[in-house]
Amino acid sequence: QVQLVESGGGLVQPGGSLRLSCAASGSIFGSFFMGWYRQAPGKQRVLVATISRGGSINYADSVKGRFTISRDNAKNTVDLQMNSLKPEDTAVYYCKVQILARDYWGQGTQVTVSS
To answer: Residue 30: pLDDT band by 50, 70, 90 thresholds?
Structure first.
C-alpha cells in the first residue's frame, strides 16, 4: 500500500516562508499527479498546487507567484515552497498522490500564519 508523510508545517509570521515536504512510500508504480491541498477550519479542502510526473504544474489563483511546487521522481517526494505567507494561508496542508487513478492522502501538517 501507499503511505504519505508530510513534514515542515509550523507557525510563521505573515510574510514569512515555510517549505513543506511529502515523502511517499510503498507501491508508487504508475504515479502521475502529486499535489498539495489545504483545509481551513470550517472550510472544504481545496487544491493548492499539483504537478505531474512530467513537470506540468497547476496552482490555485490564491497562491500563484508565492508558492512553488516541485517533485523528485527518483525519491518519490513532492515539496511546496511557500513564500510571502498570509494569515489566509492558515490551514492543514495535505499531500496527495494519484496512482493508477486512485488517490492517496497524507495525514496533513498544520500551517499557521500569525503575528
So the answer is: low
